[in-house]
Design brief:
Distance between the termini: 62 Å
Radius of gyration: 26 Å
Shape: globular
Number of strands: 19
Structural class: alpha+beta
Helix content: 25-40%
Largest sheet: 8 strands, antiparallel
Number of helices: 16
Length: 620
């Protein structure tokens, strides 16, 4: 990675800033092209509507009782709602003023910027010391804590100053610069204190370093100081990339790929412009594989394979993906191609600003293509086929139970057919204090009890790196895709296991007709004693029908039929209520097949057939 002496020789001296730092040149000619681009019409309509509303309505307040709610009750959404709405207003007011070359929104924008500078801390309460008693002894005070959102706020404010240079009130511009110095630059770049994220191997290192580094590139005029700032950011970026193995798989899922790798790209692009091409981070086979990750995990738009804390539905940022496809020459991933200011509920500045600069017509609606991907380091297997014009996919995973945003999900699998994940991954639950604390695996989303894996002698999977899957086989033979995992270490001693091996055999549907795929799941157990109990679990957001020896999940255009030996298994369905990442209620259907009083050796088989269309008979 680039070091200080190289940066010092590459950063322009004398405070000169080359044009195009903020994703491209925002001059009159380019602004006219943006206003006339049909691919951006919807996005511009949203920006203008939000700017008009923001200018007419009072700025949302952030009172103390919302600030302290996380510390007192563990709840985040009440404070974060108005916090992120303020960032959305900043995005809309600034970009409407820029793109439409109007001063109509500048009074409201000046007022909003003043309010943002008056916030007690740009860091979220969830990222501050959990108890007030800890604050006096903290090396970094809450108002100078650099978390994801403090860094993002600094970048958004810095880029607002950059693109609207000379148009904001000088008092406001002065105060914004001073607050960025006080809250981000001095705590991060002028102390010996190291924030925890500086060595993190996940999205935090890229987002915090990327956002703070971009703010520095936009505002800092001293070449030596800027080189030192960027050196520190690049060290964090090294750690971020260490979190990716050579296969390029993002263990945190598509949303965090968009977040972490997105900020890596935004930072890298700006650094390359600043240094006039002398420093480029977007090179090499590993970076290319990371850049291609979305296409490999795409399902029916806008759905993705969503292990860990990834939501099942995600709107990709067209600008980011158009830029990566152009740089690396890979196909654009499946996406709607219609950027929206509301696709990111946190209203992060660079997503929308780069959508305006980088989106091109090739990002129009595009379905997922057939193909097979095996991420050998992550042990994720994904197979996609197109049957009668609709996507059918199977995926299963190994890995270990100490991954970033970990779920205890070794041997878990997904079956997707014609737009419905009929056997699903729940993805992220609602983030609370306990969600990232000692109670994490009491949440359905994170526990193995919320995944399609067995409960063995009443014991769920355990957390920790020692709980891992060993891949025994991954190959295709005679048209059958085989994936075999030793899952013995996924369970603790209380499960009474000597050995547990799960095998998947997936066969794509051939030609026309109802059958679109067949999955055989074979579980082989060896126990230390007699009288054991195995409970297979299958997770869906679609209510199943159960009859003798058969469970059916009927989607809008396809169905799954699970056949089992009802002399061995007793079937029933639990109806469970939980909330998604945004706090919206969802209903989960967990089908349980239970075998009791089994001997020391036991083999359980589940046969699942995927069929197109709606079934002609009713089950009960």
């Amino acid at each position: 990675m680039i070091r200080f002496n190289v940066l010092r020789g590459s950063v322009p001296a004398g405070g000169a800033k080359p044009p195009g730092l903020a994703g491209g040149i925002w001059g009159p000619e380019r602004l006219g092209q943006i206003r006339q681009d049909p691919a951006l019409a919807g996005l511009l309509d949203e920006i203008r509507a939000e700017a008009k509303r923001s200018a007419a309505e009072p700025v949302p307040v952030l009172p103390f009782h919302l600030f302290v709610k996380f510390a007192d009750e563990g709840s985040r959404l009440e404070f974060e709602g108005p916090y992120f709405e303020r960032r959305g207003r900043l995005l809309a007011l600034a970009l409407a003023s820029l793109v439409d070359e109007t001063d109509a929104y500048l009074p409201a924008l000046n007022d909003l910027l003043w309010e943002l500078c008056s916030e007690y801390s740009w860091a979220l309460p969830a990222h501050l010391p959990p108890r007030f008693e800890e604050i006096p002894d903290a090396r970094v005070k809450p108002e100078a804590t650099v978390d994801l959102f403090a860094a993002e706020t600094a970048h958004a404010l810095a880029e607002t100053l950059y693109v609207l240079e000379g148009r904001l009130h000088p008092w406001v511009a002065y105060r914004v610069r001073e607050e960025i110095e006080r809250r981000v630059f001095r705590p991060l770049f002028e102390t010996s204190y190291s924030f925890h994220w500086e060595t993190a191997e996940h999205n935090w290192s890229a987002v915090c370093a990327g956002a703070a580094g971009m703010a520095a590139m936009l505002l800092e005029n001293d070449a030596n100081r800027l080189a030192g700032m960027l050196d520190r950011c690049l060290r964090a970026m090294e750690c971020f990339l260490e979190g990716y193995a050579e296969d390029g798989c993002c263990l945190e899922g598509i949303g965090y790929w968009n977040y972490g790798f997105g900020y890596f790209v935004y930072f890298a692009e700006m650094l390359e412009v600043l240094t006039e091409g002398k420093v480029s981070l977007l090179e090499g086979e590993k970076i290319a594989r990371i850049a291609a990750f979305p296409e490999s995990v795409a399902l029916t738009v806008p759905q993705f394979v969503n292990y860990s804390d990834a939501s099942p539905v995600h709107e990709l940022q067209p600008g980011l993906n158009c830029r990566l496809a152009a740089r690396f020459g890979h196909p654009l991933p499946p996406m709607t191609g219609r950027p929206s200011v509301h696709s990111d509920h946190c209203y992060r500045w660079p997503h929308t600003a780069r959508n305006l600069q980088w989106t091109h017509a090739g990002a129009a609606d595009k379905p997922a293509a057939a193909g097979r991907t095996y991420f050998s380091d992550a042990a994720w297997l994904i197979d996609r086929s197109v049957h009668e014009g609709r996507l059918v996919a199977f995926s299963a995973k190994g890995g270990h139970n100490d991954e970033p945003h970990n779920h205890n999900d070794l041997g878990h699998f997904i079956v997707h057919a014609a737009g419905d994940a009929l056997l699903a991954d729940l993805g992220a639950g609602q983030y609370t204090k306990d969600y990232f604390g000692s109670g994490r695996y009491g949440y359905l989303h994170n526990s193995s009890e919320g995944h399609s894996v067995p409960l063995i002698n009443g014991t769920p999977q355990r957390a920790g790196r020692e709980a891992r899957a060993e891949v025994l086989r991954q190959e295709e033979q005679d048209g059958v895709l085989c994936f075999k995992l030793d899952l013995t270490k996924a369970y603790g001693q209380e499960a009474g296991l000597s050995s547990y091996v799960r095998s998947f055999e997936w066969r794509r549907g051939a030609g026309e007709g109802l059958d679109a795929g067949e999955l055989r799941v074979l579980d082989r157990f060896e126990f230390a004693g007699d009288g054991s109990r195995v409970e297979e679990r299958l997770i869906s957001l679609t209510e199943p029908s159960v009859r003798q020896g058969l469970v059916t999940w009927q989607g809008a255009e396809a169905s799954l039929e699970l056949s089992f030996d009802d002399e061995v298994w007793q079937a029933q369905t639990d109806i469970l209520h939980t909330t998604d990442h945004h706090g919206a209620p969802i209903t989960v259907y967990r089908t349980r097949l239970t075998a009791e009083g089994i001997g020391r050796s036991f083999q359980g088989e589940l046969s699942i057939r995927c069929r197109m269309g709606r079934l002609s008979y009713q089950t009960s």
